[in-house]
Structures are given as C-alpha cells and as structure tokens.
Design a protein that fits this description.
Elements: E1 19-23, E2 36-37, E3 49-53, E4 56-60, E5 64-69, H1 78-85, H2 88-108, H3 118-144, H4 148-172, H5 178-199, H6 201-230, H7 238-257, H8 259-300
Length: 304
Amino acid sequence: MYMPDIYDYLSALHQGIWEVVIPKDLLTVPLGPEWKFSPINVPSPGTIASYRNGQYHLHETKDEYKVHLDRYDPEKNPFLHLIDDAPLILMIMETLQTIYMTSRDAKKNTAPDFISDQQVTWKFRLMMGVILLFFSCILLMMALNQYEHLFSILLPGVVFLNGALVFARGFFMRKRKEYSKKDLANGVLVMAGGIIMALLWELYLFIIVFILTIWSFGSAYVNLKRVIREKKDIPRGLWLSLGLGTGSLIFGVLAVIVPDFLLEILIGILAVIVGIIGLGLLLDGYGMRNAEHLMQEQAEAPAM
C-alpha cells in the first residue's frame, strides 16, 4: 500500500503557487530529518513550529502543514533571504496580523485545558499585561520625545540585566561544574556587552540604521524589479509585492534623509505592538479571573 509523504504535495510550489496547505490527516509518513527546526521566522497566525528544508519553509499548525518556497536558502544566502523573503514591512504586517488573529481565536477557546490552572494563569497574565502596557508607554514617550534614552540606557540595561541573571544562575548552581563555568563566563561577557552598548550607543545605533537602510533598499529593489519584469507571474501576488517594494523604498529613503524620524516610527510601531499584546493579556487575565470565580461558585453551590 502506497504511503504518501509531504513531497507528493509540493510540486505546485514549482508551478507558480505561493503556498500549499496540507491537512495532517493526509500524511502517513512523518517529516524526515532533513526538515530542520527554524527558530526565527516571520510571525504567522496559528503557527506551532516552523521547519526548513533548503528553500522549503514549513509552518505547522494544529491540523495542517503550510509550505511555501523561499527564493533563497537562508543557510546559503542569509542576506538575500532577508531582503527578499523577509522584508521589514512584511514582518511588521505579519506581526500585527498574528496578534489580532491570536487574540480573536483565544476568545473562542472554551476547551477544558484552556481553563485549567485558572488562578495562576490569570494572575500571571494580569501581571504581564500591566508590565507590557507600562513598557509600551515608555516606548511611546521615547518615540515622541527622546528616543536616544532607549538606545543609551534601556536596551543596554536590559542586556546587562540578562547577563547578570546568567551570571547569577552560574554562581548559585556551581555543582554543575563546566556548565556553571560557562554561565559565569557568558554572564560576564553579556554584562560587558551591555556596558559597551551604553558607552558607545551612538555607534551601535548607526549600525542599526545602516542595516535598516541596506535591508529596506534591498527589499525594495528585488520586489519592484520582480513587479516590473514578471508582472502577473509572481507567486506572492502583484499587489503585495508592489506594496512591499514601495513601502521598503519609503523606509530606505527615510533612513537616509531623516533617520531620526524613521527610528521614531519604528519605536512607535514597537510601542503599539507591545501595547496590544499587553492589553490583550490584561483583558484575557480579567476574563479568566471571572471564569475562575464562576467555577468556584458553581462548585460551592449545593446540589439540587
């Protein structure tokens, strides 16, 4: 008896189709070892995990595998992959879409596992929501007034704090011997990196702007070139590619002419994203708190 595997459904990707969606029920053969876990990806709604196999990029959801074909293998051409397959504009769009769809789907989830451990979960979500909203307000004020504090104080401080936590873990877990020594060394290096970032914040800020400029102009070039040459034969779609190319070009021009304004825009977008996540956690935690109280009242109510 023939047992279909995932490759039986991927031929359409080589014929101009942008993405194929494969129900897991159709596959009787699991993913092979050639599919390597991909830790960094453009956010996509409902994704549990992502895998790569050369130019194939697979997103696993609860019931499906979604596979598209990247033009460049990130292991062989990381820079071309970044500017072509993951433009900054696309990453912002997909992040906002993922946040919206995740929060929308969470409201519909009433499964028993969703309401287990209510007390711990809602308290944690309320706490994280407040923290993220506070952080969002800080970012917004920095975007509107003095964003340099983000790069000279806040980010170096976060890096230094992470290094201190790694160092503390190595210090308090000295029984692990070689692992403890690695944590101590890594902690010192990360803390030193935070100090250097604070002292040379203008230098690493220039590097960030330079990378954003090259990234944006590169994405604009490949997308607009594809629109002009290929026109209708674009797997991602003519209008999306045109929008990505135009948006990337605008970002690139802003990075050259008014880099301060571009940074304010990006920090503002980050503030909005963090704020949406924080507000979602806050509302979700409040709803779970009410659900827990309702469950307790039902449990304590005398049986009729």
